[in-house]
Amino acid sequence: MKQKQQLEKWRQLFTTITTAKLITRKQFLQWSGLGSLGLVTALVGCDIFKKQTSISVAKPKYILSKDKVLGLPLWMVEFETVTVNENGTVIKRNSNNQAKLFKEDLGNNVTLEMVAIPSGNFMMGSPGREGKEDEHPQHEVTVKSFFMGKYPITQGQWRRVAALPKVKRDLKANPSRFKGDNRPVETVSWYDAVEFCSRLSKYTNREYRLPSEAEWEYACRAGTTTPFHFGETITTELANYAGNKTYASEPKGKERNQTTDVGIFPPNGFGLYDMHGNVGEWCQDNWLSNYIRAPTDGSAWLNKNDISAILRGGSWYHFPSYCRSASRFNLNKEVRGSHYKIVGFRVVCGLGKILP
């Protein structure tokens, strides 16, 4: 019993000092005098040497309701979510989640699922010392209900809408670097995304647009206050990001170096997928260096003379810290005409917004 307790102390000490990068494994070996065999014995089960484990959830269940919204049938979806601790270990599963959505028919068996996001209040930005200066001050925002795309816009959906009549600008049919009908469209500018929304609005007679930054974060958090809607951290079994870096005490994971099909990772509490990683997502707003002047009603911050733009969610290329719910960035002082293989978007539709 005494030896077991001593080994446990070694494990805890090793985890603490190496995670904090105060000492290397080789230095620990020399300093401890354990010897290689003793070190292996002492460190069996130590989190820093564990591999990320596969995390799966139950397949969503769709139930067609008798109700309609915006003239379309309303579906009820039952789905499962997971919560992880700072080690990336699942500590909670909730299989009682429900969401409402409608399906927009784009033709050729291509649909766009729009999930109902309820109205509410939330604290936007990062608390205390979390995050960067541009994520402060944390402030309360009131958001009205709306519908948001269940996934980032896919390449299959993009091609259908890009084939519709032009509104203001031309759209390439296949702009993405990483090809796949169910992969998110990328290498599209803010102006391209707005044109997509304009064409979709005209085709459906419903108003589609990019989300405001506040709507995006509210939808991503889905009632959570942790750095990620999954909890204290993420793993590459939960999202597509640069897994060679860690956020908390989770093990390092995969580096995919490309986008992945949408919807292969677990959803958040609102039933939205890929809110962390895969592709950064355009928002309506111009860039603000902090939240001192930010709107508190969920609307976008817009300046007619400003061509800056905001990206949310991080991407397959980014470290996990850039994929947090509150993280916001504008690459190289992002302008709306920029095209990057890490950037896509998702759309929103306002309740009751039917065009004349």
Stretches where pLDDT falls below 50 for ≥5 residues?
Answer: 16-23, 36-49
What is the arithmetic mean of pLDDT?
A: 88
Rg, please?
A: 22 Å
Task: Give the termini distance in whole angstroms.
Answer: 77 Å
Structural class: alpha+beta
What does it look like?
The protein is 19% helix and 23% strand. With 356 residues, the protein is of the alpha+beta class. The strands form 3 sheets. The chain has a 7-stranded antiparallel sheet. It has a 4-stranded mixed sheet with strand order 11-10-9-12, with helices on one face. Strand 3 (90-107) and strand 4 form a beta hairpin. The longest helix has 18 residues, at 2-19. Residues 16-23 and 36-49 have low confidence and may be disordered.
Defining traits:
seven-stranded antiparallel β-sheet; 356 residues; alpha+beta; four-stranded mixed β-sheet
Give a concise summary.
The protein is α+β, with helices and mostly antiparallel strands and 356 residues long.
Chart the SSEs and their pairings.
Blueprint lengths: L1 H18 L5 H8 L2 H8 L18 E9 L2 E13 L5 E18 L2 E8 L2 E5 L14 E5 L2 E4 L5 H8 L27 H15 L1 E4 L3 H9 L58 E3 L28 E2 L15 E2 L13 E2 L3 E7 L2
Parallel strand pairs: 9-12
Antiparallel strand pairs: 1-2, 2-3, 3-4, 4-7, 5-6, 7-13, 8-13, 9-10, 10-11
